[in-house]
Amino acid sequence: MRLKSATAIAGLGITKQGKVYEHNQVGFAIEAIKLALDDAGLTRADLDGVLLNPGLSWTDGGMGAFGLQQAMGLHNLRLAHTMNAGGATAGAMIHQAVEAIATGMATTVACVFSDAPLKPPAPKAEGKSSGSAAAYAFGRGLEAAYGQFGVNAMYALVAQRHMHLYGTTNDHLGAIAVAERQWANKNPQAQFYDTPMTLDDYRRSRWIVEPFRLFDCCLVSNGGVAVIVTSAERARDLKRPPVYIWGMGQGHPGGDPSETLTSGAPLAKEQAFTMAGITLGDIDVVELYDCYTFTVLVCLEDYGFCKKGEGGPFAADGKLAPGGALPVNTGGGQLSSFYMWGMTPVSEGVIQIRGDGGARQVPDAKVALVSGNGGILSTHSTLVLANEP
Amino acid sequence: MSAYTKPIPVITPEMRPFYDAAKRHELVVQHCSGCGAHRFPARGICSHCLSPESSWVKVSGEGEVFSFNVMHQIYHPGFATEVPYAVVVVKLAEGAKITSNLVGVKPHDITIGMPVRVMFEDIIEHVTLPKFRSVE
Ligand SMILES: [Zn+2]
User: Fold this and answer.
1) Do A164 and B67 touch (CB under 8 A)?
2) Going by fewer Cβ within 10 Å, which terminus of chain B is more open, N or C?
């Protein structure tokens, strides 16, 4: 079965992002799907599939997608799943939607991520927030005893190895943060819209977990993002230009990322690029999963934009920034725009391919590489999106 | 001695041999009966050969710093007066890796590859934590 351009993204919905409190996580998901349906010129009656990637605030476990279905009044779904492959989930949801549509098991599928981990500022100070039960529960008991808490600390161990083996520096990471901020400055939906940052600002920002400073880490955000996937044929009759899905792939290497310093990108890329019939040179715009500056660096290496170990110097000369030779994370990414897991790079890929980027639009962007990465380099997804079949 | 304020690990049945040994100031890790690999923390099935058979064996306590980070953010009040402090991953001579702390070395003096040796800290009556010292 030919999958290249069998399907397309027909609708995109992005709610307000960041310190916004008008909904809980379910409300943000519904609003995102509504916005995506409106964008496509469809209604919820057109949906026969819904796939949900729950963020951290979804606590009803396996009932996630079905809870959402109830809350949104979606009837007669033929496809409904709650999915979790970490930061690779957005790509994995779109893969599943494509497969269902291409095989005739569904026609129109909403893929959505939402989260609402931020609470409105309390009227009075509640005392120290450090040492919350949630933060403690994140660490395994023994690791917490040594003071190892959270995902920042785990990625930091991997980054430290990269620095040791290849001479990667904080300024290399800082160059990535600065480039993404320059993109965010041109994106009105970004939390850091019109808020410049220099490398010196980066160097002055506080440490979170060395080797990561504040600006090496993604933004925690409330909000939701959804896309509508349908057949390419149907997408051509809808309101907006189809964003064709040329290729897709996943790669989940397992193992110890601090040993390999390699993500699942090589595996996911092979499948996706073969399906799409492209090479790196065909890509106009790159949207990488940037939970940390460091994951951008590793993925630049793993997709083959530079050799393993050379990501630091490769990123350091401004080529990722507006006007540079390799536009990366053109909306500001998760570092400077909003953190909707893999839906951040997906949404920006759709915007660029449609030519909707406004001040940040990459001229003549015809082919986008969209990447998802999670579980400390252990899950990965790749999408190739394009403006023609 | 003032009250211990850092997180106290929960001693699960599968990890009990490790804590019992630490109490005796011995470091033990799991040894796979199938392929001979050493592993830590406890896991019911070997991820190399899928054997469910294993035993706990005493190891030399020698190793080297495989990686480390320096924690600045306070995630638990017990560490509030210690930041910045380093968490190290030690690769033991026998091959298993263990997360721990390095005693007597300032965070910025730690280097990857630094040779280290285990020591023991009796934190409360029933829990002892293996930590490491530089042997340079
Ligand atoms: Zn084995």
Assistant:
1) yes
2) N
First to last CA, chain B: 30
Question: For B100, which of A141, A146, A157 is closest by C-beta distance?
Answer: A146
Report the 3 state secondary structure along B93-125.
CCCCEEEECEECCCHHHCCCCCEEEEEEEEEEC
Q: Across chain A, which distance is largest between two alpha carbons, in Å?
A: 60
Q: How many CB pairs under 8 A join A and B?
A: 104
User: How confident is the prediction along chain A (389 residues), in pLDDT tens digits per residue?
Assistant: 789 999 999 999 999 999 999 999 999 999 999 999 999 999 999 999 999 999 999 986 558 999 999 999 999 999 999 999 999 999 999 999 999 999 999 999 999 999 999 988 865 444 333 333 333 443 358 999 999 998 999 999 999 999 999 999 999 999 999 999 999 999 999 999 999 999 999 999 999 999 999 999 999 999 999 999 999 999 999 999 999 999 999 999 988 899 999 999 999 999 999 999 999 999 999 999 999 999 999 999 999 999 999 999 999 999 999 999 999 999 999 999 999 999 999 999 999 999 999 999 999 999 999 999 999 999 999 999 999 99
Predicted complex ipTM: 0.97
Q: Please tell me the distance between residue B66's alpha carbon and the centre of ligand 1 in angstroms.
A: 22
Strands (E), chain A: 7-14, 49-54, 79-82, 108-115, 207-210, 212-213, 223-231, 243-250, 285-287, 367-374, 379-386
Q: How far is CA A323 from CA A8, A180, A189, A361, in A?
A: 28, 12, 20, 10
Q: Which helix (H) or strand (E) holds A97?
A: helix A89-102
Q: What is the pLDDT of residues A306-329, one digit of tens each?
A: 999 999 999 999 999 999 999 999
- Answer yes or no: are the C-beta atoms of A347 and A337 closer than 8 Å: no
Smallest Cβ–Cβ distance between A209 and the set B7, B71, B100 belongs to: B71
Catalytic residues of A: 289, 339
Structure tokens at B76: 């638990």
Instruction: Give the whole-angstrom CA distance, residue A310 versus residue A329.
Output: 19
Torsion of CA A211, A216, A222, A227, to 10 degrees: -120
What digits encode the pLDDT tens for the residues A337-349? 999 999 999 999 9
- This prediction's pTM: 0.94
CA distance B86 to chain A (A): 8
Which helix (H) or strand (E) element contains residue B88?
strand B85-92
